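Re: beginner question about structure tokens

> Can someone show what the tokenized structure looks like for a real chain? I only ever see the sequence side.

Sure, here's an example I had lying around. Input first:
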Amino acid sequence: MKIAELIELQKRSHGPGRVRDNLGDGYLYLHNPFFRRVRDAALGRGFRFTPHDPRAYFGFPLIELDALLSARRIPYRKNFPALVQLERSRPGFFELADLRQNRPMPNYLLHEAAHAVAFVELFGKTRDAHAAMSDRDRLLHVMLGEAFAMSAEYFAACAVGGRLHSWLFSLNSYRHRTQKKKAVGELVSELGARAVAWAVLTSFLQNNFLIERLSATRLAGMLEISKLTSGLGIRGATARKLRNAMSGLMVMSPEFRRDTARLFLTMHGYSRDVRRVLAVEPLELFERDPAARGAAERLVGLLSDDAA
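And the corresponding structure tokens:
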């Protein structure tokens, strides 16, 4: 594909709810239902996208999540105008293949928009994100926010089809792997989108509590705790298939997950001993917090339905 063609595609794909200067934004909004659902949900909850960095997000996104959530503004880099400038330097010469090793700077708007949606659902309309996430009684809410962002990116990655879609998605998402995609698709056909989305969300949640794999007992507990799955009677071969698929999704670097959790939680006043902080049973926290469970079910509905 010529860069000139990509530029024209970007222009044709622009419209309401899309960010003109973020490369691939309009295309993903039109062709990736999960990208679109999360975007519409974030806009509907009062968030906007801005090329202006409110504090130091571009320098260190993780530690600036509070500022993003409090300001209701999600920063992005203007990477599309740079592509236009490249084309102007030698019209009609450059192709997409020329950007294989030298790519525009990415924007992680899907991930941050998912955090924005989850924050409003889990913490309400508060504008003091740091104080909200520093509340020791809201640890489950903090970890659910990250689990939802991970779930949104996973489903969006599974919806990618074709080289162009894949390349544009890679500029807009942290996730590049779709492990267990076939099994997850089969399970959606068998159990329904909401049931599988609940399993994915709660699997990532438990992963964030440093749980590496699902036992049969743990899977049964996470299915029983929600009205989305408790009446489905998932057992036998189907339960084993679901457990294997969810355990496959949970495979990631334990060191990265632990160190990321330590940095983020210590920012909010928690102990450096992150293993002790997270040595609680997330399903028991759900049992004691029906409001969090209801928010999680609404987030699952967002991933499962066309309406945000």
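Each token stands for a local structural state, so reading them left to right follows the chain. The mean pLDDT is 94.
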